[in-house]
């Protein structure tokens, strides 16, 4: 899938680049892309290590269990395989908490852990819960979208934080929509597999 | 409200620190082994990032965004989306920093509280990148068949774009 996305993006870029005579910029962009991938990875390295370590500790002292038990019913509703697998439920809960509280980049390491927990018996094919989890992470619920408010403030908004309530509404509605669609598709997927 | 977010990170770090006093468990080595896991995962993601980063930079540099926006304005209007927010809608799934650039442009054209800027802001606050997030998650699990993940993410994004406009109209 990633290969196909790559192919589509670079082909479209090539066509438009040729059409708008931006081939030199395009060539430069290829190299810039590789360089910025390493910059991204370097900056990610620190945060991933920190949060992976911190979350492991929080797990071992049972702090994650507490959060997980609070939202367990919803997790089990959206991710059926988490009903039997408490560890997966905990990972999903810590990912949700990381997104909700805006814990820097803790969402990525916790998300990857949750995916690995959900991937246990799956091999090369993603399970419906993995797909659901991935989709839900593209619409995370953030209590305080700090980058956005900062952008608004620097653009001269009268009330940078006035955007909070609209975002909460939009986020909540979108999450419910995503969860419903994923669960429906997941059920269809399971049925097809069992046939 | 501000404080919850600001206190959360330091509090967690203190919690981790306090746990190091517990003599029953060797939490320090738990921390270190978690760290090493994080390192391994990040390094294993580098190839995926290189692929995507090149594609994204090329996409931004080629002018494809403008062309696509022009193509998609009519359908956008039909879906009651504000066409000026299309650059953000298109960039959002592809690149976080790209979408920040696009929204800054909207801010400079329409002010922070103009309808397109407001709607785009609501969209930005409710979503995250699709390509990078999904690729990172699936690469980390070495999954080849991702099923409905990508298509559904796109549909969800479009849904979010449309309701962001509606909500923005209500609140402006």
Question: How would you describe this structure to a colleague?
Answer:
The complex is a heterodimer of chains A (195) and B (172). With 195 residues, chain A is mostly helical. Chain A is built from eight helices and no strands. Chain A has helices spanning 2-19, 23-60, 63-78, 86-100, 107-118, 128-136, 146-154, 164-194. In chain A, helix 5 (107-118) runs antiparallel to helix 6 and helix 6 packs antiparallel against helix 8 (164-194). The relative contact order of chain A is 0.08. With 172 residues, chain B is an all-alpha fold. Helix content of chain B is 80%, strand content 0%. Chain B has helices at residues 2-19, 27-61, 64-78, 86-94, 96-110, 115-126, 131-140, 149-171. The longest helix of chain B is centred in the N-terminal third of the chain and has 35 residues, at 27-61. The radius of gyration of chain B is 20 Å and the shape is globular. The mean pLDDT of chain B is 87. Classes of the chains: A mainly alpha (195), B mainly alpha (172). At the A-B interface, helix 1, helix 2, helix 5, helix 6 and helix 7 of A face helix 1, helix 2, helix 3, helix 5 and helix 6 of B.
* Average pLDDT number of chain B: 87
Protein structure class of chain B: mainly alpha
SSE run of chain A: HHHHHHHH
Largest interface: A-B, 102 and 102 residues
Helical content of chain A, roughly?
over 70%
Coarse structural class of chain A: mainly alpha
Report Rg of chain A.
20 Å
Q: What does the overall shape of chain A look like?
A: globular
Order of helices and strands of chain B: HHHHHHHH
Based on DSSP secondary structure assignment, what is the total number of beta strands of chain B? Answer: 0
What is the molecular shape of chain B? globular
User: How much helix, percentage-wise, in residues of chain B?
Assistant: over 70%
Strand coverage percent of chain A: under 5%
Largest sheet of chain A: none
């Amino acid at each position: 899938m990633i290969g196909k996305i790559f192919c589509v993006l670079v082909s479209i870029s090539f066509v438009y680049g040729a059409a708008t005579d931006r081939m030199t910029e395009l060539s430069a962009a290829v190299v810039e892309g590789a360089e910025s991938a390493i910059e991204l990875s370097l900056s990610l390295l620190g945060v991933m290590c920190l949060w992976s370590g911190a979350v492991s500790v929080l797990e071992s002292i049972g702090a994650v269990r507490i959060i997980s038990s609070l939202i367990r019913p919803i997790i089990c509703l959206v991710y059926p395989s988490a009903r039997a697998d408490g560890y997966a439920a905990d990972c999903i809960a810590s990912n949700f908490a990381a997104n909700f509280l805006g814990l820097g980049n803790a969402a990525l390491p916790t998300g990857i852990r949750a995916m690995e927990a959900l991937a246990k018996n799956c091999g090369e094919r993603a399970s419906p819960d993995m797909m659901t989890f991935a989709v839900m992470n593209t619409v995370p619920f953030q209590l305080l979208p700090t980058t956005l408010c900062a952008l608004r403030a620097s653009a001269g908004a009268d009330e940078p934080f006035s955007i909070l309530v609209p975002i909460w509404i939009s986020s909540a509605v979108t999450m419910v929509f995503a969860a419903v669609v994923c669960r429906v598709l997941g059920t269809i997927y399971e049925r097809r597999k069992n046939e | 409200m501000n404080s919850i977010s600001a206190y959360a990170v330091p509090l967690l770090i203190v919690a981790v620190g306090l746990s190091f006093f517990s003599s029953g468990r060797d939490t320090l080595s738990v921390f270190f082994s978690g760290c090493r896991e994080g390192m391994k995962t990040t390094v294993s993601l580098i190839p995926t990032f290189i692929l995507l980063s090149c594609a994204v930079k090329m996409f931004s540099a080629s002018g494809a965004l403008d062309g696509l926006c022009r193509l998609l304005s009519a359908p956008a209007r039909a879906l009651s989306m504000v066409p000026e927010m299309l650059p953000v809608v298109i960039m959002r799934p592809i690149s976080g920093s790209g979408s920040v650039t696009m929204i800054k442009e909207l801010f400079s054209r329409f002010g922070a509280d103009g309808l397109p800027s407001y709607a785009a802001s609501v969209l930005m606050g409710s979503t995250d990148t699709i390509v990078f997030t999904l690729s990172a998650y699936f690469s980390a699990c070495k999954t080849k068949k991702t099923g409905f993940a990508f298509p559904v993410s796109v549909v969800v994004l479009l849904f979010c774009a449309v309701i962001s406009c509606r909500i923005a109209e209500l609140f402006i």
